[in-house]
């Protein structure tokens, strides 16, 4: 039997033999915030939000653009309609090169786009009557606006900064969620290590007591039933050791792979309790409303709903668009003569669209947008209530968690002491094997209950940080450095 116990001890200890790595909960969290798969996914999500905001900001800066047509050659017969309304066929043998340099600026105040441009075109005609002609527009101002009744730029200026701020706060919340995920994996391995240690200790104790029971049975001091019960306890302990070894291996892999460590032989310590600090519901709600991305999300959803209603109202019954242009131009056969005696060119186009008879389509579209807005507002109101309720309940729960932890710790101490006393009394033959097993079960349960209570204590702490984005120990907001992707 001793050889079996020795083999099981070597099997379990093999998990921590070799390149052992000692790691605390705080160290594991710091590693996870830099190397875990969740962090890498978070970086990709944050990068998308970053470039979306950069694109939005750039859209209100002047855009310089060059558009050109490289030599386009055409030698074909085309059908044309002459001044008499007759169709004739004309051969075309020519090439054309043109280019335009434009400076475009979106105007947020009006919702249109202002452009300054210059154009140059050259046409080469081949054949017996070959010639070269030029056309130039040295200066042209153009303003275009798709809708005079709806300014999309105005709404974007309200919404896009909220979207970006929401993404930044989401990044911080997700970093706190990484702390939560790490804590759960850490305690899962810690409990597996403790269970394996308890199982090995119990097996050793059960074997020792079994040997004592065999001697007492030979002396006629205990019945055969008690001896068989003790032997059964030894066999059950062996099975428990084997089962725990598998759970220990799984938990070690889960934590090591999450932290991207080069070894699974991790040695964990039991985290200490935090410094005592008080969290009031009022303070938690105040910080949550100031820091959480949900508060920004509520505002953003309301604005987006109002934007959709404004867009429908602006373009539903009356559609107005504007396109205006002013510039100078010249054309001729000699390039040097193009830049004198310019011709003016100007045009203004106002487009109007009014549905005369649409059988209520416009009204239905407007009513639908308004109904969607009301629904979104109602949903946001409910989300706000649930948001406050979650903070309220978790804060109350946190206030009681330290008391639960103290109770569990005291229960562990009492159960351990009771088992030691019970084991001594069993050796002296004053109690039965049933009483011993009961004390052993209560001792093992109390140890795991303490670890479960300690895990809940730390998980609730990091949950409180995630819900408020506030560090109540350091009394400051939780922040992370802005990440750029240039």
Written account of the structure:
Residues 1-17 have low confidence and may be disordered. The protein folds into 2 domains: 2-55 and 156-301 and 375-477, Outer membrane efflux proteins (OEP) (Up-down Bundle); 69-107 and 112-149 and 322-353, no CATH class. The protein has a 6-stranded antiparallel sheet with strand order 2-3-4-5-7-8, with no helix packed on it. A two-stranded parallel sheet has the order 1-6. It has a two-stranded antiparallel sheet with strand order 9-10. Helix 1 (2-13) packs antiparallel against helix 4, helix 3 (37-58) packs antiparallel against helix 4 (152-218) and helix 6 (281-291) packs across helix 8 (361-427). The protein is of the alpha+beta class. The chain has helices at 2-13, 25-35, 37-58, 152-218, 224-259, 281-291, 293-315, 361-427, 433-468; strands at 21-23, 63-81, 87-107, 112-125, 131-145, 266-268, 319-332, 343-353, 470-471, 476-477. Its main location: membrane. It holds the Pfam family OEP. This is TolC family protein. GO terms for molecular function: efflux transmembrane transporter activity; porin activity. Keywords: Cell outer membrane, Membrane, Transmembrane, Transmembrane beta strand, Transport.
């Amino acid at each position: 039997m001793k050889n079996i116990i020795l083999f099981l001890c070597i099997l379990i200890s093999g998990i921590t033999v070799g390149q052992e790595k000692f790691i605390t909960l705080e160290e594991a969290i710091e590693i996870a915030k830099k190397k875990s798969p969740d962090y890498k996914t978070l970086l990709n999500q944050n990068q998308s939000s970053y470039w979306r905001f950069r694109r939005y900001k750039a859209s209100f800066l002047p855009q310089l653009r060059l558009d050109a047509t490289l030599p386009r050659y055409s030698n074909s017969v085309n059908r044309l309609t002459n001044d008499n309304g007759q169709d004739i066929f004309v051969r075309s043998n020519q090439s054309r090169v043109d280019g335009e340099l434009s400076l475009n600026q979106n105007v947020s105040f009006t919702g249109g786009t202002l452009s300054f441009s210059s154009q140059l075109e050259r046409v080469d005609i081949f054949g017996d009557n070959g010639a070269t002609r030029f056309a130039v527009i040295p200066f042209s101002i153009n303003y275009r606006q798709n809708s005079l009744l709806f300014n999309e730029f105005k709404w974007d200026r309200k919404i896009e900064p909220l979207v970006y701020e929401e993404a930044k706060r989401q990044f911080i919340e997700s970093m706190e969620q990484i702390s939560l995920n790490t804590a759960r994996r850490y305690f899962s391995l810690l409990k597996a290590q403790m269970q394996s240690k308890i199982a090995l200790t119990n097996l050793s104790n059960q074997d020792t007591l079994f040997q004592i029971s065999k001697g007492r049975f030979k002396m006629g001091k205990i019945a055969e039933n008690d001896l068989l019960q003790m032997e059964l306890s030894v066999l059950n302990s062996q099975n428990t050791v084997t089962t725990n070894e598998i759970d220990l291996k799984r938990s070690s892999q889960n934590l090591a792979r999450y932290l991207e460590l080069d070894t699974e032989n991790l040695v964990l310590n039991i985290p200490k309790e935090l410094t005592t600090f008080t969290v009031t519901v009022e303070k938690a709600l105040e910080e949550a409303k100031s820091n959480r991305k949900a508060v920004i999300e509520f505002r953003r959803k309301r604005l987006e709903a109002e934007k959709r209603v404004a867009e429908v109202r602006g373009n539903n019954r009356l559609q107005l668009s504007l396109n205006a242009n002013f510039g100078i131009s010249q054309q001729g056969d000699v390039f040097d003569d193009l830049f004198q005696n310019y011709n003016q060119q100007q045009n203004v186009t106002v487009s109007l669209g009014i549905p005369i008879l649409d059988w209520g389509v416009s009204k239905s579209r407007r009513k639908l947008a308004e109904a969607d807005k009301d629904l979104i507002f109602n949903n946001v109101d409910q989300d706000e209530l649930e948001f406050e309720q979650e903070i309220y309940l978790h804060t109350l729960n946190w206030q009681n968690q330290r008391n639960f932890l103290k109770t569990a710790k005291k229960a562990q101490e009492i159960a351990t002491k009771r088992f030691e006393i019970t084991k001594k009394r069993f050796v002296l033959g004053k109690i039965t094997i049933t009483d011993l097993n009961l004390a052993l079960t209560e001792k093992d349960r109390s140890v795991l209950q303490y670890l479960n209570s300690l895990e809940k204590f730390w998980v609730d702490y990091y949950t409180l940080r995630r819900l408020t984005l506030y560090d109540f120990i350091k009394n400051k907001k939780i922040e992370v450095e802005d990440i750029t992707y240039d």
